[in-house]
Amino acid sequence: MSAHEDAEEFIRLVRANSQIANIAGGCDEDLIARAEAQLGLSLPLTYREFLRQLGECDIAGEEFYGVWARDDDRNVLFGAVRMTLEARRTSAMPAALVVFMSDGMGGLYAMDTAASDEEGEAPVVLWEPGGSIPGSILERAADSFGGFALKRTKRALAALQ
User: Fold this and answer.
1) Is the pLDDT of residue 62 over 90?
2) Residue of 91, 82, 72 whose CA lies nearest to 34
């Protein structure tokens, strides 16, 4: 399947399992544009689709950070934006990485926008604050956010059966 098809299937699985999923609700284009501006990069296409349709979610113990703002201060963005900016500040994480999930052991899954392909997809890598070094080769977890999210969600759902 393509990265786009993987993302569509991931979103479908989350919605089909709404009894065990928490969905924040989709982001509008203005919020996505503000996230890109604060991060200083363009988000991968499958991640943008996730943001548009789900906003942020967790399903069967798998939490995928989205982008959101509080009603009282729409300029401060949380979720992936806050986690990314914090990792850049505290662990010298490269500016091309966008954090969207914790690995549960201190590591951060991130999209490497510096390695985006011609279709606008970025591979998913593992950044380990305190262990990873800028410029080093990072563990590659998937070719795209869509592929990563689909695989993790299928595995989590299978573990519940």
Assistant:
1) yes
2) 82
